Amino acid sequence: MSGWQNTVPGMREPDLHTARAAYDAIAPVYADQFRDTLDDRPTERALLAAFAEVIRRGPAGLVADLGCGPGHIAAHLHSLGLSVFGVDQSAQMLAIGRTRYPEVRFALGSITRLGLADGSCRGVLSRSSVIHLPPRLLPTALAEIARVLAPGGWLLISFSATDAPEPPYEYYDHRVAGAYRWWPDHIVSLLRSAGITESARLMENPEPEDRRQFRVASILARKPSTDGTPG
Question: Is-contact 86 107, C-beta < 8 A?
């Protein structure tokens, strides 16, 4: 879940239950406003296309879109030839996704407890799904991603970024629920600790016509194969 950002300090620490209720409340408006969000983001479309390509090179398997919201990005990945499974904690968002995109499977779940089997995903997309996590839960969420990712599988994770290494995060008032910008090297370090290695990184500055107000980091990473080779 992403978008609707505003830098007004003072909100309390993000809470997953509060975020879920907030997204439930604005689901129809959010789904309509961001339905065509990729139309004016050629760089993000290129990233998703590259993500789909590297996954298609390997064995067929499930791709989980974490924090899928109303399913528009999951549907885009499906159009790129991936078997997509959307996961979100907002039941109202998922209801919209199931109606609009019947070709995609959806399930209610939390990024800290996905309910998927170990190694069951050939790919994982985390598109701004970590921004509402309090810092103490970020390692848990990334370890959970590593658990469900198959050996040789790929992760594409994106998030609002900060340049400050100490602390490696910055609180901001997201219009839906409180959120954090993360220092990219911190994310990479936690992924490495969970057994996932960075392959490429892209930093995007917001364009004047973009709904996003902050820099966005996108990291493509991979879990090694069981024999130690990249995949």
Answer: yes
